[in-house]
Write a sequence for this structure.
């Protein structure tokens, strides 16, 4: 029975020593998070401003996508570095590796959607493919009504609205300049 108070005293001493050792790392981590938060906000503001100058009007969606992806990468890097500052470098490395494999699997599973989104970015940037232009794509001839990241809507002469995936259009389409005159 005399061992229990001794065991309890050692446990409390070990706990107090652990907390005392963790306080400097925790304070360092909090300072890092404060500085990282300010830095990320400044970087995102600069990216948003730069992208906003390039992608204006109906192309703002592309700019928003770029800003969002930049934010995800920056905050993920902050989270991994925060774990490293707290002394959990092995966890940060494991987490980074796991997220990399998950991202690889997700990108493979969503490859057609990603292909469509990339094609949409190309179509949105193409000066010969804009709303109001007459085009022929995938056997459909008509006027481009709307271009989105994954789909394009074309109004045919028969009055139908055809929705085509951008990945199907981007590889081969024709701008009918003579029909616009």
């Amino acid at each position: 029975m005399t061992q229990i108070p001794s065991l309890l005293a050692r446990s409390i001493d070990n706990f107090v020593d652990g907390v005392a050792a963790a306080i400097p790392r925790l304070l360092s981590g909090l300072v890092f998070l404060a500085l990282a938060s300010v830095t990320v906000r400044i970087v995102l503001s600069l990216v948003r401003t730069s992208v906003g100058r390039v992608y204006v009007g109906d192309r703002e969606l592309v700019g928003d996508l770029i800003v969002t992806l930049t934010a995800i990468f920056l905050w993920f890097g902050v989270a991994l570095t925060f774990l490293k500052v707290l002394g959990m470098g092995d966890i940060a490395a494991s987490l980074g590796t796991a997220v990399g494999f998950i991202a690889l699997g997700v990108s493979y599973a969503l490859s057609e959607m990603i292909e469509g989104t990339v094609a949409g970015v190309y179509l949105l940037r193409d000066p010969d493919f804009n709303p109001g232009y007459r085009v022929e794509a995938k056997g459909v001839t008509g006027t481009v009504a709307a271009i989105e990241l994954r789909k394009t809507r074309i109004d045919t002469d028969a009055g139908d609205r055809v929705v085509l995936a951008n990945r199907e259009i981007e590889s081969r389409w024709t701008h009918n300049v003579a029909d616009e005159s």
